[in-house]
Amino acid sequence: MSRPKAPKTLRFQTPGAARSTMQIGKKQVLHIERLSHDGRGIAFLDGRTWFVSGALPGEQVQAQVLAARSKIVEAQTVAVQTASAERLTPRCEWVGQCGGCTLQHVSHAQQIELKHANLVDQLSREGVEPKSWAEPLVGPAFAYRRRTRVSVRYDVKQKHVDVGFRGLASNDIVEVDGCVILVDALQPVFAGLSALLNRFTQPQALGHVELFSGRENALLLRHTQALHEADLELLRAYCAEHQVQLWLQGIGAPQPDQAGQALSYDLTQFALQVAYQPGDFVQVNAQMNEAMIAQALDWLAPQADERVLDLFCGLGNFALPLAQRVKEVVAVEGVASMLDRARENAAAHQLNNLEFYHCDLTQPLHDKEWARSAFSAALLDPPREGAQVVVERLAKLKVARIVYVSCNPATLARDAAILSARGYRLQTAGILDMFAQTGHTEAMALFVKK
Question: What is 111-140+285-449's CATH number?
Answer without folding.
Answer: 3.40.50.150
